[in-house]
Amino acid sequence: MQVPARILQRRLRHQDNVAISQVLVQWSGQPEALATWEDYDDLKRRFPRAPAWGQVGFQGRRNVNIDPDPDGVGPHAVAQREQRNRKESTRYPREGWTR
Questions:
Q1: Which segments constitute the Chromo domain (predicted)?
Q2: Helix-strand-coil split of the chain, %, nearest 5
């Protein structure tokens, strides 16, 4: 039995004014050229533990939990987003909000 091995692309397909999420699936034991478009929700329901969902162990790639650049200055450093100044809402008064 073939199972989804990798998700290659994603798209939204509109049907009867409803957006349906679809994924291009490479099936186990098949080349990318034979990948098929499948409805994401249906596929996830039929194959809840498939390797395509990232629930498998080590696949010969680096461990994503290890920070390759702890100083944050190398070629793989991620730029930090500036904190933006928030404006008061003219639509909703502040006293109505709780934190």
A1: 4-49
A2: 15, 25, 60
